[in-house]
Amino acid sequence: MNSSQNQKNDKECTKKVNACLLEFIEKLTKNEVSRPIFKFICEAVGGILICRNLVIREMATALMEDSKAPGTVEKRISVHLQDVGFSDKINFCLLKFASPRIQVYTPIAIDLTDTQRPYANKTPGVEKNYDGSIGKGGKGYKHFGAAAIFRTKEGREILPVYQETFGLNEETKLIGEENPEIDSEYNHFEKCIKSFSETLGGPIGIDVFDRGADDKKYFGCELHYRRWFLIRMCEKLRYVSYKGKNYYLKDLLPKIKWHTKKCRIYDKKKKKWRKRNRQIGWLEIQVEVQFPDGKTEIKDLVLVVVKFKNRKMFLLTNLTIDDAGNTFKQVNFAKMLYESYLLRWGIESCFDMLKNRIDVEKIFSRTYFSAKNLFALAWLALAFVTVALEGSKELAAYLLEIPQRIYKCKVPVCKAFLLFTSLKLLWQRYWISFSFH
Question: At a CB cut-off of 8 Å and minimum separation 6, what does 399 contact?
């Protein structure tokens, strides 16, 4: 195929991506937002995908600002970004959109990350934090994210469902320093779990956390809102009770009956899913939990333990393995929980794409709520790429060919990484105005 034909096809593909974005936003927000808000979301998400950052001036330029009265697009975007409840509307729409696909045992990966602003002294809402991905401290925002992870033949499909950006110091200033509800990240965690309970309708989906949620308040919150959960435990952080005696988790290993099972694991070095033998066992234990009203109780929960080489993984859940049936079914159920936890890495892929495909750390906002809403729109842009484009097989196939044609690169396990590259190449040459005015 010659160069002129490629250009013609690429331009046509750009128009199809534009139409796909409009269709996706309309399905997502149907009957939930007004027409002006719908128009704003289409423009803002399109602008983010074109310029791949959260700078309003650059977004307005990408949306053909020059073809209108100076400052028109930038002003319209800025005005909408002052809506205090906008990020909550985005979360509700994403959860409602995802709810038909989320089943009882669908893993919903939840995690916290940080972004940093090298020149953030005057950026509203920033505070000191630590970004583990770069191993440095600095000033920036904290981000609470959640994504439903679906297993596929090729690996997994990621569906972003919830995001919240916050700076605790700024919330204290805005809401009032005497307010005890804003003193920790836990408040944002509870808000997320409450949204899941109200939107998904009870114990649908398994909330999956890393060791940062190894805390009695998190256990109690999940139980209070009737959610299934799977939380990785620190082996030396707390005592648990087994048959009336207290133990550290590592001291329970001799009391477990082990079963060897082939499990589907992800090889990070070779970037492939493989089957490997793992030793799996479980025990019913008693753990102290604290409910949102402050009341504490001792609850019966299940500890799933997985051994491989010299490593051990401890997973706490309120799902009862012994009720699964005979021993064969019980082992398979424990294996399913372990493999569900391994899918938690999907949320890390979301954060990676936000930072490296949409440069969210390049953000300039005049108010705290503007920053929160810009990050919500970036999460929505991520949902568009991971859900709408990957779901449009013909369009996705063509998009994936573009960087391969230019750079001779392979398709990664998470296709969304390559789709971002495709959109950048296309819209740098053939951007389309998303303005309805």
Answer: 13, 17, 389, 418, 419, 422, 423, 426
Q: How many CB atoms lie within 10 A of CB 172?
A: 15
Helix (H), strand (E) at residue 125: none
Any idea what the Cα angle at residue 196 is, between residues 190 and 199, rounded to 5°?
A: 135
Write the CA distances from 239 to 242, 285, 287, 312, integer angstroms. Answer: 10, 11, 8, 17
Is residue 213 scored above 60 in pLDDT? yes
Nearest 5°: phi and psi at 215? Answer: -155, 140
**C-alpha distances out from residue 163 to 155, 260, 401, Å:** 24, 38, 31
Partners of residue 209 on adjacent β-strands: 231
Identify the pLDDT of residue 435: 47
397/287 Cα distance (integer angstroms): 49
Under 8 Å between Cβ of 160 and 354: no
Residue 377 burial (CB count, 10 A): 26
255 closest CA partner among 245, 265, 270? 245
Asked if pLDDT for residue 144 goes beyond 60, the answer is yes
**pLDDT band per the 50, 70, 90 thresholds, residue 31:** confident
Domain ranges in the chain?
3-85+367-430, 235-342
Residue range 298-314, pLDDT digits in tens: 999 999 999 988 889 99
Distances (CA, A) of 68 to 119, 175, 221, 300, 435: 32, 38, 50, 64, 10
Residue owning tokens 């920033």:
126
Taking Cα atoms as reference points, which of 344, 419, 423 lies closest to residue 156? 344
Distance, C-alpha 71 to centroid of its chain: 33
Q: The dihedral of CA 322, 326, 331, 336: what is its sign? A: negative
Total Cβ atoms within 10 A of residue 29:
22
